[in-house]
Amino acid sequence: MMFFPDCDELQLNGVNISGVYPIRLPDRRILNVWCDTTTAHGGWTVIQRRFDGSVNFERDWEDYSFGFGNVNTEYWIGNEILYKMTHYKNYTVRFDLWDWEDGYRYAEYDNFLVEGEKSQYMLHIGAYRGTAGDAMSSYHNKQKFSTPEEDNDRWFMNCAQKDHAGWWYQACGQASLNGQYLHKGESNLGPGGVYSGIIWFPWHNDYAHPLKRVEIKVKSYIQVKIDREKEEEMQRKEREELRRREEERIPNSDKNSQDSDGATTVGATVPSLVEGTTDTPFYTDDYDF
Ligand SMILES: [Ca+2]
Fold it and tell me: Is the separation of the CB atoms in 58 and 34 below 8 Å?
């Protein structure tokens, strides 16, 4: 079987259904991950997912380094994996966010890079674009990763302990997406008047607004750039078409249908969806040499 380093390349080779697929890391280890083939042209490798609180995210340094959770439900892919992936390719990172009022927002950042363990997995993140507001680029850029027993933050107390989570805390966060999962109506105000929960502050401009569902995903910058150019070209054509119709005073009739891609046949050499439930999204015993 032929392996690819991420979901972006898998999709370019014919995979077009969201689900669990094996990818090959730069160290040639095989890893199962969730591929998102629909959001913003697809091709996204999901590195974190929360939606029901079924997985505990209050974990130590080692768990955050090597990853934890369930690839079919909630997981953290692991800082070691992020380090290897982001040193192998230039990635754009995307944060998809849903609140309890069924609102949806997103944020995208180019030049996503996670340093190695020696640098406490320091985060580098580029310019913001999106609808959720910028929680990451100024506040969390160049921050070290912290876990409850590994305080690398800039607060006189311990952010990771307060939030029951690991994250690139400063003092503490504009975003905290590994925070404790709270259900609708549950208060995130803790002892001493500090807030916890899954937070993206700029969206509601409010720390007392924990989120319902979050996904963090990466795609190679080259592909993101192609997607954006395609989108701009489409928007330009639409504007042109509208202008043309206005000029000709032709009523804007409905188009019959949008072009459909049709089903792409998945080649025999491309990995197929991993069936059933896997307890861990992480390394299998397979190496691909
Ligand atoms: Ca501290």
Answer: no
